[in-house]
Amino acid sequence: MTKKSKIILFVIGLLTAPWGIGIILIIISLATKTDKKYKEQTEIIHKAINCPYCFHVFDKPPKRSAVCEKCSKKFFVRNFKPVTLKEKYYIDFLLEFPDISKKYLRNLLEDNRSENDYRWSLLQKSIFDKKSVGYDYDGLKLLYVKCARIVKSENKDPEPYLKLADEQVRLFFKNSSLHGKEKQQFIDQEIGFYRNFFKQT
Ligand SMILES: [Zn+2]
After folding, report:
1. Percentage of the chain with pLDDT > 70?
2. In this structure, are residues 49 and 55 in contact, taking their beta carbons and an 8 Å threshold?
3. pLDDT averaged over every residue in the chain
4. How many CA atoms lie within 13 A of 41 on its CB side?
5. Quick one: which of 189, 193, 195 has its CA closest to 173?
6. Cα 1 to averaged position of ligand 1 atoms, centre (Å)
7. Centre of ligand 1 from the C-alpha of residue 52, in Å
8. Residue 124 Cα, ligand 1 centroid: separation in angstroms?
9. Stretch 151-169: mean pLDDT, rounded?
């Protein structure tokens, strides 16, 4: 039910309130959900055929990233919708860093940086947040490996970050019930596993 029809129903209900039917109309107008979804959906479809920069109307909704024929800017497609580069970052980073607040991410994206620089800031913030909570050694390990990956992509030495990741594995096993040789085996296996993966990718 649309908002307008809900209001009309409510007013008619009020006018006829002393009788049973008036009360029923009021209840219906209050209890039914406003049909917002329909409105949102039509809005998305409407937006879906516009360039996110110049609002040029496309003949059909683009399926993948492309360059707008009118403004020549590159747009991307997320959730079946053409989006700007910043919007793409916003959607992708929220998925990659689910613990980061939307406000922090929005503020970060206000600066113009490279994708790697954004990711680096998000990693540092995530590491800081995780450290202040503590005990998520596995989560920290993954974040350090991601740092190592960025450093590697910039042709710098990733080893310091891999070492920090190794340390998280040792901390994880430190409090386990394992001892001596067996414990060391588990640690070596775990470290070997992601270091091998890192080398290959
Ligand atoms: Zn355009």
Report:
1. 88
2. no
3. 87
4. 4
5. 189
6. 36
7. 7
8. 35
9. 95
Ligand 1 centre to CA of 62 (Å) is: 12
Q: How far apart are CA 115 and CA 139, in angstroms?
A: 22
Tokens matching residue 92 = 């992708």
Counting Cβ atoms within 10 Å, is residue 196 exposed (0-12), middle (13-18) or buried (19+)?
Answer: exposed
Q: How far is the CA of 121 from the centre of ligand 1 (A)?
A: 30
Of 62 and 22, the one with more pLDDT: 62
d(CA 27, CA 39): 23
DSSP, collapsed to helix, strand or coil, labels residue 158 as: coil
Q: What is the pTM of this model?
A: 0.70
56 C-alpha to center of ligand 1: Å? 5
Percent helix, strand, coil in the chain (nearest 5)? 65, 5, 30
* Torsion sign across C-alpha atoms 117, 119, 125, 128: negative
Mean pLDDT for 83-108 is 95
Type of residue numbered 89? Y
Question: With contact defined as beta carbons under 8 Å apart, do 65 and 55 qualify?
Answer: no
The alpha carbon of 58 and the centre of ligand 1 are apart by a number of angstroms equal to 9
In sign, the C-alpha dihedral spanning 175, 181, 184, 186 is negative
Determine the pLDDT at residue 137: 94
